[in-house]
Amino acid sequence: MTSWLGLPQLASQHGAQLDRALGVVHVLMALLFVGWSAFFLYVLVRFRRGRNPVADHNGVTSHTSTWLEAAVAVAEAVLLVGLSMPLWADRVDHLPPPAESTRVRIVAQQFAWNIHYPGPDGLFGRTDPKLIDEQSNPLGLDRSDPAAKDDVTTINQLHLPVDRPALIQLTSKDVIHSFALQEMRIKQDVIPGTTIQVWFVPKVTTDDMRRRTGNPDFGYEISCAQLCGLGHYRMRGYVTVESAEDFKKWMDEQEAQLGGSAEESIWR
Ligand SMILES: [Cu+2]
Fold first, then answer.
1. pLDDT per residue as tens digits for the range 108-122
2. Ligand 1 geometric centre to CA of 155 (Å)
3. pTM of the entire structure?
4. For residue 240, how far is its CA from the centre of ligand 1 (angstroms)?
5. Rounded to the nearest whole angstrom, what is the distance from the C-alpha of residue 133 to the centroid of ligand 1?
6. If you measure from the C-alpha of residue 32 to the centroid of ligand 1, how many angstroms do you get, rounded to a whole number?
7. Which long-range contacts (CB under 8 A, 24 or more apart) does 217-223 make?
């Protein structure tokens, strides 16, 4: 229905509602553009110098324009109150229950996305800026904290199971970034010093999207939508949406690798 907008492929549950709102806004703006342009042309001709050699200071006496303005205001109010506000409320008032979601913490930095999963215990381990090592521990995760032992971290690699709400906590280490997932219709500024939650339900796996687009190299991307410095253009993450089984397999692999490195760090 909104294909004429030329939007990227849609892959999240709430996205269709958002696309519809975007479509309606475009239609209203197109009508206004045509209307005002026609009015402008009419005025150019109607009040041309040849017909009105002397200025008339009485002004307009008809109330047509007043009614037109009121109609436009009503249409805009309907869009705002009837479409946009319920959509926004649906996004921010009712977060999915954490127990039924894939929970991820994402810490943005110049110029990467640090991805942090709580692991099987469901608890994010303690982090401390003092422990940050840009090479080995960009999140500053304290592996001596029991809750941190099973935490999985990656750089720029976000894996999500399909059809399950993804509940993401966003924060930044340095400047303002913006977490954008085009196909999920998600865009949220990431502000240092605060944690902002976003959520969505991915509905199409990466494999399905490859089939749908006929592009075997298709991949979902996290892009930074806020000019955040010289390397902004390369601040790009990758999202793999997969079946629950594949996601579990990936997570188990990550956990297995963790076992090794955790032991190593004890002996170091
Ligand atoms: Cu950025």
1. 999 999 999 999 899
2. 14
3. 0.84
4. 20
5. 19
6. 36
7. 220/11, 220/181, 220/183, 220/184, 221/181, 221/182, 222/113, 222/156, 222/158, 222/179, 222/180, 222/181, 223/180, 223/182
